[in-house]
Design a protein that fits this description.
This is Ferredoxin-NADP reductase. By secondary structure, the protein is of the alpha/beta class. The chain has helices at about 5-20, 110, 155-165, 185-190, 205-210, 225-235, 280-285, and strands spanning about 35-45, 50-55, 70-75, 80-85, 95-100, 120-125, 145-150, 170-175, 195-200, 215-225, 245, 260-265, 270, 300-305, 310, 325, 330, 335-340. The strands form four sheets. It has a six-stranded antiparallel sheet. A five-stranded parallel sheet has the order 9-8-7-10-11, sandwiched between helices.
């Protein structure tokens, strides 16, 4: 790409960011689209891991997605759960997810394991809060990519590893699981070229998992919170070209103070405790309030602020508009905050 074209793209993106930052949000609008789809195939890939393929009833094309994307799956019971897309994104006629059955939890994974071909489901999205930079957006000084997957976190990383392999990017994947019987996609990964697959069991040393990471390595991680903390702590002590990760659960609220969020449209007052997000508290009274990543960078939970000053905690600068807030992470500097909801 020429320098002239790069300057043009930089200006265009900067203009869009400025416009987005100053656009006033007066009402909440969901970015979701409801797709009426049907389960066409299910298969047990590994111990307690169900592979589910979903298509349109007429096999028509579905919205495009990119590596790192997920969908909101509305189950027959009405439960809504988020699952990473792990199939071939060049296949525009189907979405593929893989779900580990958890006996303890909200029951979503258990219900997924009861789905059979022909079951009607609703899909919202796709959304992407965990984009893969290669091959189009990589910085020139990054030599390779290190992937770290913990358990079912492989579902988010599999399309990225596949993309790196197809693009000729040097990659290595450390895939950690209890044992091979519980680890899906081992055969798929073994067929990929141009990189190194390391299958690790139990609790291997973080130093071994991140061996070889240096200032020219970009790291992508998906796994349980404790594993994420350990990887993050180790990377803080060594040079690297960027750490990108997706959480299994929203990050904990740290250093929060309680406040009251007043819903202008619903005419409700909602108390937000110090250790809960505004989104969690609001969903107690309005379960359908839109959200996606719950980490402050996708913008789905952005709402207009009528009165009060939000405490910014989101990571996307273009969403830091004084007239809006991200209810999944932002809090309030004032005891009371009124929003357009």
């Amino acid at each position: 790409m020429t320098d002239r074209m790069m300057r043009f793209l930089d200006c265009a993106v900067a203009g869009w960011v400025r416009a987005a930052a100053h656009s006033r949000i007066r009402t909440v609008r969901s970015v979701d689209r409801d797709l009426q789809l049907v389960v066409t195939r299910t298969e047990l890939l590994a111990t307690d891991v169900m592979d589910v393929t979903i298509q349109a009833p007429d096999s028509s094309q579905l919205p495009e997605w990119h590596e790192g994307a997920h969908i909101d799956l509305v189950l027959p019971s009405g439960k809504v759960r988020q699952y990473s897309l792990c199939g071939d994104r060049s296949d525009r006629t189907s979405y593929r997810i893989a779900v580990r059955r958890l006996a303890v939890g909200g029951g979503g994974s258990v219900e997924v394991h009861t789905l059979t071909p022909g079951t009607a489901v609703v899909v919202r999205g796709p959304h992407n809060a965990f984009p893969f930079a290669y091959p189009h957006l990589a910085k020139h000084h990054i030599d390779d990519v290190a992937f770290v997957a913990g358990g079912i976190g492989i579902t988010a990383l599999l399309p990225m590893v596949r993309a790196a392999s197809e693009a000729g990017v040097t990659w290595r994947l450390s895939y950690v699981g209890r044992d091979e019987a519980t680890m899906p996609f081992l055969d798929d990964l073994a067929r990929l070229t141009g990189g190194e697959l390391r299958v690790l069991h139990g609790e291997p040393a973080i130093e071994d998992i991140l061996a070889g990471v240096d200032e020219r390595t970009s790291v992508y991680f998906c796994g349980p919170p404790g594993f994420l903390d350990a990887v993050s702590a180790d990377l803080a002590t060594r040079p690297h070209a960027g750490f990108h990760f997706e959480r299994f659960v929203p990050p904990p609220v740290v250093g929060g103070s309680p406040f009251t969020v007043r819903l202008a449209i619903s005419e409700l007052d909602v108390e937000v405790p110090a250790d809960r997000s505004a989104l969690a508290a609001i969903r107690d009274v309005i379960p359908e309030v839109p959200y996606s990543c719950q980490q402050g960078f996708c913008g789905t939970c952005r709402v207009g602020v009528v009165r009060g000053t939000p405490e910014r905690r989101g990571t996307a600068e273009f969403l830091a508009d004084e007239n809006s807030m991200l209810v999944s992470v932002d809090r309030s500097h004032d005891p009371d905050l009124t929003i357009d909801l």
